[in-house]
Write the C-alpha cells for this entry.
Amino acid sequence: MTAAMTRAGAGSVSARNLKYLDQHLGKYISDGKLAGTLVVVYRQGEIAHWSVQGLRDRERGKPMEDDTLFRIYSMTKPIASVALMQLYEQGLFQLDDPVHKYIPAWKDLQVYQSGSYPNFQTAPGERPMTVRDLLTHQSGLTYGFMSHNNVDAAYRELGIGSGRQSLQEMVDSLAELPLVFSPGTAWSYSHATDIVGYLVEVISGQKLDAYLQARIFEPLGMRDTAFWVRPEQADRLATNYGLAPDSSDIIVVDDAATSPYLHDPVYLSGGGGLVSTAGDYLRFSRMLLGKGTLDGARIIGRKTLELMTQNHITGGKSVAGAATQSGPQWRETGHQGNGFGLGFSVSLDNSDGQIAGSPGSYAWSGAASTHFWIDPAEDLAVVFMTQYMTLSPRGRYNLGRELRSLVYGALD
C-alpha cells in the first residue's frame, strides 16, 4: 500500500527529476524495504518539494502524514552541538578547555592498552580530552554497539547508553573506564555528544530538555520536538522497523503503540534521544541555512556557525583518514571526501567522495535512516524521514547517497 502526496514549488528544481525521487522512494516501499517516507527539498526560500509516501504504521494501516513523529536518533547531535555553542558565544567556555574542568572525575582518564573489564591495562593519554574533542568525535570515547574492542564490551556490560542510567550516572560510569585512543589522535563515533549535552547542563545550570526548549525549540517554533511523545501526540508516532533475521522482510523493532518514547525518559541523550517531525527539523535546517537566524529569531551567530561547519579533524584529515574503524554502519556518513566539524559532517571533496554536491555542505543522519543536509552554495536544505534501522550489511541501504544524486540531479 503506497499512497503518495507531492507538493512542488516552481523554478528552482526540475519537476521531471523530482518524479525520479518519488519513484525511487516508492520502489523501496512497494518492495517492502521501507514502510513509508517523507522528503522535503527547500531551495531559494521556498519548499520546492514535499513528498509523503506509504505508511507510518504498517500493522495498523496508518498512512504517513505531514505531522508524523519520527525517532531522529543521531540527528539530535547537531541540535545539542548548537546548544553548547550558544554557551560558547556567551564566553562560558573555550573549545580547548579540558573536559575535566567541567567533569572533575575525568581528570585522570587513561587509554586502553590491553585486557578486559574490569582488568584493563592502561596508559596515560598524550593530552587531556578537550571540549572540541567531544564535538568532533575525537574524544576516545566509543559506543557499546560497536563491538570492536574490549572497551565497548564494557559499555555493554555496564549498560552505558542503554537508557537505564541517568545522564549523570553515565558520566560517573565513564569515569571508571579507559578511552579507546588518546584524545585528538583519531576519529571514532561515540557517546561524545551525550557528554556535550551533559556540558550544556553543567554550564547553563538547566536540564538539557528545559534548555533546548527555551533556547532552540520555542524560538524556532519546533512544537513537536522533545525527548518523549506526549499523550496527545501519541497517535502520530511512526512505528520503527528493522530487517527480519532470516528474510528480506521488515519487522517491528519499536511499536508506536508501546514505544518507550511514550514515557518521559530517565536518560536525556544529546546524542540520539529526540523525536521530531519533518516540519520541525526543516525549521532547524532553515535556521542553519539562514546563517543562524529564522523568522527574526537568532539562534546561533553567523561566525560561530562558520566555525562549526569547518573541518576540525586533527591535521585536516578526512573522516576516512582518521577513523579507527569502518564498515557498513558508516556507509551513510560518507567517510570518503568528508571531514567533521563541531556537530556535523562537512563535505571537503566531492570527487573523492564520488557524490554530487558542494564543498562546504554539511549534514548528519540518524540510526533509523533519517538524513538531512545543508548546502549553502545552492541555498538548499533537504530533510528525509523514515523509520528503518539495522547494522546488518545485508539490510543496510545507501539512502543518504542516493538522495543526493536524485536531489542534485533535479537542480536547475
